[in-house]
Design goal:
With about 350 residues, this protein is mainly α. The protein has one domain. It is built from eleven helices and no strands. The radius of gyration is 21 Å and the shape is globular.
Length: about 350
């Protein structure tokens, strides 16, 4: 991340730029995204069910997410936290606030850009799954215990195909740095990794589906089922704990969508030499804002597609979901990796 992209002078210390950048990501990206996606999801579901949807809090109900948050913060039960729930809260908070540094939001908005950058989001996903499992174990109830076990089992089943699909993108780019993964793609859809060859398209679909299994996101939310487990690990949550739980789940969903956009859907790359023209004539700060908007629009579209899918596809049981991950997603991911490697080798010989 450069100081010029955030409007600082070139001599500004790096630690100041990093702190301001991280706080800016939360204030400008994460929290507004929570409110916006919550409102869009409510409107989409209301349209599906021929309802009006939120329309009282603000114009077109746009302030409804804020009203829901204030309502949750006012609710509090006479419940004493155990040391297990304190451990879950510590793990959850660590994953939630540490992995924001690995989110790539533009060529100038990258905090960590190493050869292992693309694998760091798996830390967030697996730690959040572990924290959710610990939350279930701390509740001392059948719903919480079995819900926690289901979340852990699903996380293991979805991690392997997602990791293999990540390798497919690395084979094409020749690196796992965010900048290399993005620069290997074009500004138009035909230049994106997902549409570069049939094997990469299969890898993209499997990557998104594996992420839903790994993170227990609907329609693969077996560990959070409201039918047989009456909510699973979230059955006994309310007030501030429920708001923190929902924020963590949205965060990993948002993180996974951004990663899918960066490695498969063209990242922040603009068509032609448009980025150079904007940087020279308008300034690097304007280019950073445009690249950020480009990534967020793609991520929101992908998330809304998943929300739409969750409303039209039946929710499976946890055994059906894990079988689907091991018997369908894993073989397809391995086939995609072999095909992508052969395709890259054949292109290199031409």
């Amino acid at each position: 991340m450069s100081a010029e992209s955030l409007g600082f002078s070139p001599g500004t210390p790096e630690w100041i730029v990093s702190i301001v950048g991280l706080l800016g990501v939360y204030a400008v990206v994460i929290f507004p995204s929570v409110a916006l996606m919550s409102w869009l999801e409510r409107k989409l579901i209301a349209d599906f069910q021929a309802r009006v949807g939120p329309n009282r809090a603000g114009p077109a109900g746009f302030f409804q997410p804020i009203a829901d948050l204030l309502k949750l913060l006012q609710k509090d039960t006479r419940y004493h936290w155990s040391w297990r729930e304190g451990l879950w809260l510590a793990v959850h908070t660590m994953a939630l606030y540490s992995t924001v540094a690995v989110i790539p939001l533009g060529s100038s908005l990258i905090f960590v850009n190493t050869d292992m950058s693309a694998f760091l989001p798996f830390w967030a996903a697996l730690v959040l799954a572990l924290g959710t499992m610990l939350l279930g174990f701390s509740q001392k109830s059948v719903n919480g215990w079995f819900g926690g076990v289901r979340v852990g089992v699903q996380a293991l089943a979805g991690a392997l195909p997602a990791l293999v699909c990540m390798l497919c993108a690395g084979v094409r780019a020749g690196s796992f740095r965010w900048t290399d993964l993005a620069s290997s793609q074009g500004g138009l859809p035909l230049g994106w990794t997902a549409f570069s060859n049939p094997f990469q398209f299969v890898a993209f679909v499997v990557f998104v589906a594996s992420g839903l299994v790994l993170l227990s996101i609907a329609p693969t939310s077996g560990g959070l089922s409201r039918i047989d487990l009456h909510g699973g690990v979230s059955a006994e949550l309310s007030g501030r704990r429920l708001s923190l739980f929902r924020l963590g789940r949205f965060y990993v969903f948002f993180l996974w969508s951004v990663i899918a956009v960066v490695i498969f859907l063209g990242a922040w790359i603009l068509p032609g030499n448009l980025a150079e023209i904007i940087s020279q004539q308008i300034g690097p700060f304007s280019l950073a804002v445009i690249e950020l908007v480009c990534v967020l629009v793609k991520a929101y579209a992908l998330m809304m597609g998943v929300v739409w899918l969750s409303r039209v596809v039946p929710h499976g049981r946890v055994d059906q979901i894990t079988n689907f991950a091991w018997r369908v997603l894993s073989p397809f991911s391995l086939a995609a990796l072999m095909g992508a490697a052969i395709w890259a080798g054949w292109r290199a010989l031409l």
